[in-house]
Amino acid sequence: MSLAGKVAIVTGSATGVGAGCALLLARNGVNVVINYTKSLAEAEETEKACAAEGVETLLVQGDISVDADCRRLADAATAKWGRIDILVNNAGTTKFAAHSDLEALDAEDFHKIYAVNVVGTYQMTRAAAPALKASGEGSVIMISSVAGLSGIGSSIAYAASKGALNTMTMSLARSLAPEVRVNAICPSMIETRWLREGYGEERYESLKKRLEDSIPLGRVSKPEDIAQTVLWLVSGANLTTGETIRLDGGAHLGPRVLTKRL
């Protein structure tokens, strides 16, 4: 499927995975809406990189936990291009808290995380849904996490929110069919500044090395890996909907050392 001239909204696309997705879509001819909450300077850099690929871009500030901001994002895209073909729901948040410390999270933490990761994603999808349906071949991609499959991750609240997102992916895939496909990507650890700052340099490097030494493919994800999967889902997976695609380098298979003993 040719993507040239199509329009994508990528939430949380100033840096990291969102920026990687926006850039790869731009390289394939997609006009992109770059969304940010606070990181204006970095969002401008991402927009500049996308525009250099010869596509049109739009920079829109907005917090997806606010429904009015979601509707403004969708309206901005349709006002400029008259269409939305792709929505990458990448924006997310967490609180880093040890799973063993049940006092590390309170109700407010859960509310804040769910407001973005679950409610915000729903609101953004709802806002874009009429244009995505009008496209006739719309695609919604949820950037989820293996945390939602196995209960691991930066905190229990984060893992629970991603589990809810995976369930919502199936619900929305049913309700938006047949005009729109909805799928989720579930990466394991990703090489991003967000994780490095959240865990702290020492713990981040320790976790990364432990994974790289054990998982079958021997490396953790990079934003480009997630972007490549997004590209496949929007351009070549025409009969794929309601799926959660695990992107963990084979970690779910168990330690690589076990396979060497067989």
TrEMBL record:
| Segments forming domain Ketoreductase | 6-188
Q: Which PROSITE patterns does the protein's record reference?
A: ADH_SHORT, PROKAR_LIPOPROTEIN
Q: Which CDD domains match?
A: SDR_c
Q: Name one GO biological process term.
A: monocarboxylic acid metabolic process
Q: Does the keyword Oxidoreductase apply?
A: yes
Q: Which UniProt keywords apply?
A: Oxidoreductase
Q: Which GO terms describe its molecular function?
A: glucose 1-dehydrogenase [NAD(P)+] activity
For this protein, the record's Gene3D superfamilies field holds:
NAD(P)-binding Rossmann-like Domain
Question: Is Oxidoreductase one of the keywords?
Answer: yes
Which superkingdom heads the taxonomic lineage of this protein's source? Bacteria
Q: What is its EC number?
A: 1.1.1.47
Q: Which family does it belong to?
A: Belongs to the short-chain dehydrogenases/reductases (SDR) family.
Protein's UniProt name:
Glucose 1-dehydrogenase 2
Name the encoding gene, please. ycdF
